[in-house]
């Protein structure tokens, strides 16, 4: 793998979606979009990457291959786009943080390549300026890179509050901005953040049922909740919700358990209506869902397992929420985190 491949694997935002499609699928266009978005394994990898960005454990390498890094990057953004603004903001922040950590360890030549690849060309400068005076005399600061003022201003317009992007803080000479390796890396990080933000609109063109499904999961996680995954429900909760779905009328404690559990995992009111309609009737379920949506009982405690067992509702051990969190993350292929 050449230098370009190494850079793209570490910084997949360096290439646009069309080039990414050619790399991953072998061709470009709408058909390639459908192939990428319809690959269940790659979409699942993209979801895992998006969650890693949201939760702060996105690192390098994330995938074994260049193709895996690029596909997971774009699919992660596509899932975040479908999940909503909160998810987009957190995924972009996580991807930007990862890029900044990687750029911080790069030599100036790599930072220059990143900037050039993103449309902010730099060249060798070769300027030394007096910096401090110590016992050895005057110590100079090497400014080994030069960027045109017009190019610098395009980049600085992205974040006027960042000190490293203020023109007043730069060394200007003959229409050029002279930069040290450290300042060049800071600019490369800023350009990376801009590029990642820009790739969201490209990724939004990727659509599939799998992307929509994982977007619902990501939306819940980005808002601090848990996705509603029936397959991962603890046996006790599955038993109660199963009765409701089959049309069995729930007792008051069973109904309380169902509502509080769904609220604590931050399931939407549409889930409440769908699950409870067969048990209490569509009209009552919709009315309850409306109240639930306006004021979900997220601060209510689940009944202890001892109470549930003594009341004949179901048998369980420990925390139902902790069990569900572990089961749902395992089901979705995510590392289990303790809270």
TrEMBL record:
It is an enzyme of class 2 (transferase). The keyword Transferase applies. The keyword Transferase applies. Keywords: Nucleotidyltransferase, Transferase. GO terms for molecular function: nucleotidyltransferase activity. Its EC number is 2.7.7.-. It comes from the Archaea. This is DNA primase large subunit. It comes from Aeropyrum camini SY1 = JCM 12091.
């Amino acid at each position: 793998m050449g230098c370009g491949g190494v850079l793209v694997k570490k910084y997949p935002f360096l290439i646009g979606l069309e080039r990414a499609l050619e790399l991953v699928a072998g061709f470009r266009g709408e058909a390639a979009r459908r192939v990428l978005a319809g690959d269940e394994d790659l979409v699942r990898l993209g979801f895992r990457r998006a969650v890693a960005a949201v939760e702060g454990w996105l690192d390098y390498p994330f995938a074994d291959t260049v193709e895996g890094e690029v596909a997971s990057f774009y699919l992660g953004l596509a899932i975040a786009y479908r999940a909503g603004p909160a998810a987009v903001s957190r995924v972009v922040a996580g991807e930007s943080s990862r890029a900044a950590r990687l750029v911080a360890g790069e030599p100036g030549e790599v930072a220059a390549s990143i900037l050039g690849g993103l449309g902010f060309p730099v060249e060798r400068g070769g300027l030394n300026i007096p910096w401090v005076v110590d016992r050895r005399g005057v110590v100079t600061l090497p400014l080994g890179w030069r960027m045109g003022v017009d190019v610098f201003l395009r980049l600085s317009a992205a974040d006027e509050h960042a000190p490293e992007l203020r023109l007043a803080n730069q060394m200007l000479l003959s229409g050029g901005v002279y930069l040290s390796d450290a300042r060049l890396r800071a600019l490369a990080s800023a350009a990376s953040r801009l590029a990642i933000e820009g790739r969201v609109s490209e990724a939004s063109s990727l659509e599939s049922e799998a992307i929509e499904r994982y977007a619902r999961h990501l939306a819940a996680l980005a808002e601090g909740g848990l996705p509603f995954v029936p397959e991962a429900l603890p046996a006790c909760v599955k038993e109660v919700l199963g009765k409701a779905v089959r049309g069995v009328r729930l007792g008051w404690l069973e109904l309380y358990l169902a509502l509080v559990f769904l609220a604590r995992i931050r399931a939407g009111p549409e889930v409440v209506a769908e699950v409870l309609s067969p048990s209490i009737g569509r009209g009552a379920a919709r009315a309850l869902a409306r109240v639930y949506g306006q004021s979900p009982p997220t601060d209510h405690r689940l009944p202890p397992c001892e109470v549930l067992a003594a009341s004949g509702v179901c048998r369980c051990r420990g925390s139902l929420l902790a069990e569900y969190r572990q089961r749902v993350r395992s089901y979705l292929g995510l590392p289990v985190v303790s809270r």
